[in-house]
Specification:
alpha/beta, homodimer, 14% strand
């Protein structure tokens, strides 16, 4: 991670009073724009409205005759498993369909390991002090799970090919208390990169001091392309099996950003041993997930191809917003050396880096001008960005015109904060 | 619990060969009847079929404008909270609406306590050995949660007014490792009794050595009357508050046996401090429950009165099945002193007691004659009925005619097992 370096620092400082004046004017506009969370827009949700009543009043039987209205079916309807398996490029036997939330499935997996341990393990993780590797910037809710349960987080670098493998390999090889690693391998949150094949293969094969090390593989954006082509990602379950570490990956995904956010269907995929272990625990905590909602998804999407076709409609709605971010940042900050930003080919976020030490000031200035951003630092463990430079921009929710306005404000705040800092 | 005593033991023994002959004949019939689980019948589920598509394709906004299709809303829609609050006779502020499963909410509450402790507590329950009181016969899935997490179970007696308070008070007063107690206070599973007012008040007021003792109050059958009148139950949250133990109760319920089993809506209700504590944890494990399904329930039932009206339709379908059980048992076993059975005014089960030592033989005989019953012992901690006499009968799923046939087989198996035992 090279530092952001201003191209013409004197010129930036010279413009300070001009930035202050522009900022004062912006504050007068009384804007109220929210760019904090990666929520789908109303137009995206509308794409699935037919799903709400796709089931007729007597359409409640799954293909195998299961009455979805009644109890049972711990791991999901076969046809829902088949769709997820194809989208995740694995086999239905590796799939457990859950309730509406993949975050809940991840949290459950961590809690199960804390209380009971995992296959290949030597007992409950919660018996001693454990640690997780956290490629950063990353997803704040992953880090929150660790913080909540007292799991120490080790922030590790993330570059355009994924996590920095040389340092990760060294860490996991030498410290048996490192039990897990959070990964968003495709269109990573918030930096947008997809892990290179060589990185995935090294993650699958690396020697870990802990015999029960787990990759928490949050494939949240598996089918969330913005462009016509998808980033290739090596399938993790097969890669780990091939490397002799079949039980290493715990993969998660959901339809939250495909059908409805919070009323979708979530999934965990893993090895036979991990699936059997998870089902043993699931049988204690539930009689089964909501199968009617699974059937609704099956009827609406029909198959994996249906999901992919649907995602092209999402991309058509999202692309102009991401283009707006790029366009404004390029116009306002291009060549200044005051910031660097990602141009993701998928996912939900643009990652903006400012000069070291400026991110929290930019977020504060933007907030005071009516543009809410994710808190600075949120993308790092414990909310602490060591260089105070990363800002997660979430352009999905507001209309493109508002995204444009918000980004103009953010760009101005970057210039103002930079000028103030360079002058100091 | 007085033992079942045969009225005319010699006569029973004398009839052994006749019972054997009848049993051999029944086996020839090739029956295949399943009375194992408390599942609603197709006809009951059909009552809610309109709910499947009660929402029009543009009907997704809650009363407060919340778009139920998008993220957010940790504790449920206000209108869903209001319905549950009225049904449970508490205030909406005490209510957290969850996903589809109350079992999951109970399990979550236990896991949170194991890992983090509870308000008024002195740290995580999982740090030491803990115990739960288990009124027995009780619900096997409650006991499974304890067994799974290594919580020691103390079986305590249950009579027609609820748990035997004298012994319970003594136990909890003297043993600080007793942290919890499972209660199904209304139409108890499987014995059908509703806790008397004096019992509820003693549970609310009893002195516990553990400062963080919790009543796990599974009010699964709160509105599941079979008759025109309901059994009165003292509201536990107010009772505990009045007794100076506001954080003692954790109440659970769901619409699984109201709308759809497994695709309903679950709820936890408790004190302000417990609700705040639960929400702190929930915010880590989920972004929110399925609000579209909540809205579906709100539109279909409209209000608590709508739920009650709906439950009268359930009762009309269930009553003939429960009457069939009573009728056959009375006809076949009445006056014999070979069995005693409950005649519940609500809930999902009939509890059948045989002569001591005969329950597992009856279940085995019935199974071999094509009538599957819940395994003997399932209603006791660790699946061990110390007197081997209790059998849970679940008449809800099969048609009344099949219930009748199945009960004839069970009654015959009771006579046969009794005769064999008395002869031995």
């Amino acid at each position: 991670m090279t530092a952001i370096t201003p191209t013409k620092p004197q010129e930036v400082v010279a413009n300070l009073s001009q930035y202050e004046a522009s900022y004062a004017a912006v504050k007068q506009r009384g804007l109220k724009l929210d760019m904090t969370r990666g929520k789908p827009s109303n137009e995206q949700l509308d794409l699935a409205n037919e799903m709400i009543n796709v089931l007729g009043p007597s359409d409640y039987k799954a293909a195998d005759g299961t009455d979805t209205r009644n109890y049972g079916g711990l791991d999901g309807l076969p046809e829902m498993k088949a769709i997820f398996a194809e989208l995740l490029e694995t086999s239905p036997a590796n799939v457990i369909v859950g309730g509406a939330s993949s975050l809940t499935m991840m949290h459950d997996a961590v809690v199960r390991a804390l209380l009971h341990g995992v296959p290949d393990g030597v007992g409950p993780w919660g018996r001693g002090k454990i640690k997780f590797l956290c490629p950063s910037p990353g997803y704040d809710r992953h880090f929150a799970i660790c913080q909540h349960h007292g799991i120490e987080m080790i922030a590790v670098d993330l570059d355009k090919d994924g996590p920095d493998m040389a340092s990760d390999e060294k860490l996991v090889a030498s410290d048996a208390s490192i039990k897990g690693m959070w990964c968003v391998p495709k269109y990573s949150n918030p930096t947008g990169e997809t892990y290179a094949a060589s990185v995935v293969e090294r993650l699958a094969a690396m020697k870990t001091a802990a015999p029960d090390f787990r990759l928490f593989w949050d494939n949240a954006y598996a089918v969330h392309d913005l462009e016509a082509t998808t980033d290739p990602l090596v399938e993790i379950i097969a890669a780990c099996a091939k490397a002799g570490n079949p039980n290493r990956p715990l993969e998660f995904a959901s339809t939250s950003k495909i059908s409805f956010a919070g009323a979708g269907v979530a999934v965990m995929a893993s090895s036979a041993a991990n699936v059997a272990d998870a089902k043993k625990h699931l049988g204690i905590q539930t009689i089964g997930p909501d199968k009617v909602n699974q059937l609704r998804h099956v009827r609406f999407f029909k198959d994996a191809a249906g999901v992919r076709a649907h995602m092209r409609k999402h991309a058509a709605l999202l692309r102009p917003k991401f283009e707006a971010v790029s366009r404004i940042f390029e116009r306002e900050l291009g060549g200044t050396g005051l910031a660097a930003w990602t141009k993701p080919r998928g996912g939900y976020f643009v990652s903006l880096d400012t000069l070291d030490g400026c991110a929290s000031e930019v977020v504060k200035l933007a907030d005071e001008a009516g543009v809410k951003l994710t808190p600075a630092g949120a993308t790092f463990p414990l909310g602490k960005d060591p260089r105070n430079r990363n800002i997660r921009v979430a352009p999905s929710l507001p209309p493109a015109s508002q995204v444009e306005t918000a980004m103009e404000v953010v760009a101005l705040c970057v210039k103002l904060a930079s000028a103030r800092k360079l002058k100091a």
